[in-house]
């Protein structure tokens, strides 16, 4: 389309130039120089566009993350070619600055994400699945591509994007003009349902003043994000070791330390430990770390990474993979504000080695489930405030509050849900 416009625009300029050239030679020369410059620029732009490999894309916010959404059909059939495309889109690696200014990334893990969305297989369609997608976490300072886990926040926009692009049509209507889209996440082989409002023409409506997402300004339409049977997303088990609490050995302060943790795999695997363990038993100044995680408290990050890697090994996962498992430390509600808002548990999580400004949604969902499993560290913290009849676990994170709804049947997790919002930010082409 752009090339056609350039050609037509160029012909228009050429015709105008021909009219002016009928005047004096000096005037014609002046006009020719003035008008040929845009023609040269347009031609140059056209050549760059062809050389820079544009690909159709949408830029969307889901929850507290933003990401590039691509259709699988627009990517090479040879998946070994995908990594260089993703890295180019995001502007990675950026080892010196970590800002990804040369691409669409934003220098933090929640802004360095891609979703590849496609049609389900015939078998998946028979199972009621509307859309298939793969989540990609792109490294910032390096060229790492991690597809070992899923992103809860961006999962909330898969259904919206699939409708926008005609990948699927709304076939599960619910009351009040809403529709449920069932997606299959290829990373974890799990099913996720998203329910959101649509118009009579089947277009997702995202700008209703219904709910807020902590960390995002303003009201927006309610998107119900529900992970179906989320246990064992990576390890095949809700409790990968079979125990609600384990002990990890790390090296700290010239000696071995033994850290009590809970290793839970629901939506994504996560290592949970207590704030008090870090602050009191290891003697780390966690309050200072939360105020300024760099550089004076870098040793805290190093300890947390040791714990995360040890937890990964215990869960049977690759310890070198930055995206999975996540690590989060939890605490009991402490402030009058926590009591006023009926907070059950407080969490701080790391993503790609950096403190998250809110909470990765899969960590929040996993924490909601863990808080309902007797014997886990989150359960021990939340049991005094959490009602057994309560449908939700109320979690405070650095940007606010989120209510997570785990549905358990004995030891089986039927589902876990949360409310999200989203917004379309851009649709066009992205160069890599």
From TrEMBL:
Molecular-function GO terms, alphabetical = isomerase activity
- Does the record carry Isomerase as a key word? yes
Q: Which UniProt keywords apply?
A: Isomerase
* InterPro entries membership: PrpF-like
Q: What does the similarity note say?
A: Belongs to the PrpF family.
Q: What is this protein called?
A: PrpF protein
């Amino acid at each position: 389309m752009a090339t056609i416009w350039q050609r037509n625009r160029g012909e228009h300029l050429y015709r105008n130039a021909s009219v002016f050239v009928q005047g004096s030679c000096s005037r014609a020369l002046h006009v020719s120089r003035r008008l040929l410059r845009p023609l040269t620029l347009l031609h140059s732009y056209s050549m760059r566009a062809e050389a820079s490999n544009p690909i159709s894309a949408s830029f969307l916010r889901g929850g507290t993350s933003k990401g590039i959404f691509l259709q699988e059909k627009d990517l090479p059939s040879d998946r070994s070619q995908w990594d260089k495309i993703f890295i180019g889109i995001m502007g990675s690696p950026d080892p010196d600055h970590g800002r990804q200014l040369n691409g669409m990334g934003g220098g933090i893990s929640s802004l360095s994400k891609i979703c590849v969305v496609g049609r389900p297989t015939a078998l998946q369609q028979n199972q009621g699945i509307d859309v298939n997608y793969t989540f990609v976490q792109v490294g910032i300072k390096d060229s790492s591509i991690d597809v070992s886990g899923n992103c809860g926040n961006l999962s909330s926009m898969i259904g919206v994007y699939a409708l926008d692009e005609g990948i699927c049509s709304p076939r599960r209507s619910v009351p009040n003009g809403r529709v449920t889209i069932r997606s299959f996440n290829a990373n974890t082989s799990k099913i996720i349902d998203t329910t959101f409002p649509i118009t009579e023409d089947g277009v997702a409506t995202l700008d209703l003043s219904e709910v807020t997402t902590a960390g995002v300004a303003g009201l927006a339409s309610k998107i119900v994000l529900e992970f179906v049977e989320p246990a064992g997303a990576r390890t095949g088990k809700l409790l990968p070791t079979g125990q609600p609490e384990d002990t990890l050995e790390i090296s700290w302060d010239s000696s071995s330390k033994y850290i009590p943790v809970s290793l839970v795999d629901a939506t994504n695997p996560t290592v949970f430990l207590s704030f008090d363990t870090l602050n009191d038993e290891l003697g780390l100044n966690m309050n200072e770390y939360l105020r300024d995680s760099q550089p004076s408290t870098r040793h805290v990050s190093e300890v947390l990474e040791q714990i995360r890697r040890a937890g990964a090994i215990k869960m049977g996962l690759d310890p070198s993979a930055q995206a999975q498992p996540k690590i989060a430390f939890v605490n009991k509600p402490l402030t009058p504000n926590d009591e006023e808002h009926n907070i059950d548990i407080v969490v701080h999580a790391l993503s790609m080695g950096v403190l998250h400004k809110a909470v990765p949604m899969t960590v929040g969902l996993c924490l909601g489930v863990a808080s309902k499993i007797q014997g886990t560290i989150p359960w021990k913290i939340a049991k005094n405030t959490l009602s057994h009849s309560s449908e939700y676990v109320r979690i405070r994170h650095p940007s606010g509050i989120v209510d997570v709804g785990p549905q358990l049947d004995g030891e089986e997790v039927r589902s876990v849900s949360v409310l999200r919002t989203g917004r379309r930010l851009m649709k066009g082409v992205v160069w890599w």
